[in-house]
Amino acid sequence: MLTYPNIDPVALALGPVKIHWYGLMYLIGFAAAWWLGRFRARKADSGWKVEQIDDLIFYAALGVILGGRIGYILFYNFANFIDNPLILIRIWEGGMSFHGGLLGVLVSMLLFGRKVEKGFFTITDFIAPLVPVGLMAGRIGNFINGELWGRVTDHSIGMVFPGGGPMPRHPSQLYEAALEGLILFLLLWWFSAKPRPRMAVSGLFLIGYGVARTVVEFAREPDDHLGFIAFDWLTMGQMLSLPMVMFGVVLLAFAYRRRA
């Protein structure tokens, strides 16, 4: 059994002001996406201006934060929101939904596309390889917070999480950081390094994330207030991810069929 490092969630305390690792992970993710985006934009055939990346990341950040929080409330915590609407703004307590953040980013990219006069899928194909670095940082933030732990396991990789009971559990946050983050980034960065038909990179992102999230959900503990949605194994994360996979397959197939 591995020992949970039990890192203080507060990275820096300046009097009453506390800077949490969870928030820092978001900043690291946005900064990495900004740097990678500017790197790609400098290529002669990128079709992008380097200065456009600044606004792109700003719009994306708004979409992630607003969509992620609203999505979490709607998908995972709506009953508590009805009782106490102020929980919507308590982002520092955790509680962000990837699927809500994705919808928020899609809306923000529509608005950004109107500003810079670029097609929607031109933008999503460009940002898709940048997203996994933020996902990886966010999952590491979940691990430091000691939240979203995995199911009970007798495997040697199990950890006892504070608040997770006395039994060792899968460090599912790290599984997600590896699959949704590092591996998906490498796949998309390689795939998008060469010209691809429009929508292909976006489609591959949806497939890659949806498959990774669906697989990890088998090791991740379902939310206490939700449990399994159906069949004693289907979780909310899987129910939201499976349509992503199907839509991604449609996009990828349509992209290559249209080019042919």
Automatic annotation (TrEMBL):
The catalytic activity of this protein is classed by the Enzyme Commission as: 2.5.1.145
Q: Which terms are listed as keywords in the entry? A: Cell membrane, Lipoprotein, Membrane, Transferase, Transmembrane, Transmembrane helix
Q: Which InterPro entries match?
A: Lgt
Q: Does the keyword Ribonucleoprotein apply?
A: no
Q: Where does a 1,2-diacyl-sn-glycero-3-phospho-(1'-sn-glycerol) bind?
A: R139
Q: Name one GO cellular component term.
A: plasma membrane
Q: Which GO terms describe its biological process?
A: lipoprotein biosynthetic process
Q: What does UniProt give as the signal peptide span?
A: none
Give a single Pfam family match: LGT
| This protein's pathway | Protein modification; lipoprotein biosynthesis (diacylglyceryl transfer)
List the molecular function annotations (GO) for this entry.
Answer: phosphatidylglycerol-prolipoprotein diacylglyceryl transferase activity
Q: Topology relative to the membrane, per the entry?
A: Multi-pass membrane protein
What function does this protein fulfil? Catalyzes the transfer of the diacylglyceryl group from phosphatidylglycerol to the sulfhydryl group of the N-terminal cysteine of a prolipoprotein, the first step in the formation of mature lipoproteins.
What family is this?
Answer: Belongs to the Lgt family.
This chain's protein is named Phosphatidylglycerol--prolipoprotein diacylglyceryl transferase
- Species source reads Solemya pervernicosa gill symbiont
